[in-house]
Amino acid sequence: MPTHYKTYTPYISPFDPCPPIKVKSYSTPPHLYLGFQPPNLPQFPPREALRHGTLWKVFYDSYYSPYERAKEGSDT
User: Fold this and answer.
1) CA-CA distance, 54 to 66, in Å (whole number)?
2) How far apart are CA 55 and CA 48, in angstroms?
3) Is the pTM of this model over 0.85?
4) pLDDT tens for residues 27-46?
5) Measuring CA to CA, which residue among 30, 21, 8 is closest to residue 67?
6) In sequence order, what DSSP letters do the residues of the chain get, joined into one string?
7) Residue range 3-24, pLDDT digits in tens
């Protein structure tokens, strides 16, 4: 199962005035890994589908920012 979060290391210039972000991450949508939509996929109930933004459960992506995730773990 591929992960929906990828990371990469950007070029860091020696002349950059700001502290560098050494590892950056991004999210990829779940439909990239499906290929085609098979028949009889499990579906959300209509009200829940509106909340999630998709009818099919395999296409739901609970995206969160890496910064939001870091805040959840800290106690400050």
Assistant:
1) 23
2) 8
3) no
4) 888 888 888 888 888 999 99
5) 21
6) ---SEEEE-----TT-SSPP---EEEE--GGGGT-S--SS--B--HHHHHHHT-SBGGG------HHHHHHHH---
7) 778 899 999 999 989 999 999 9
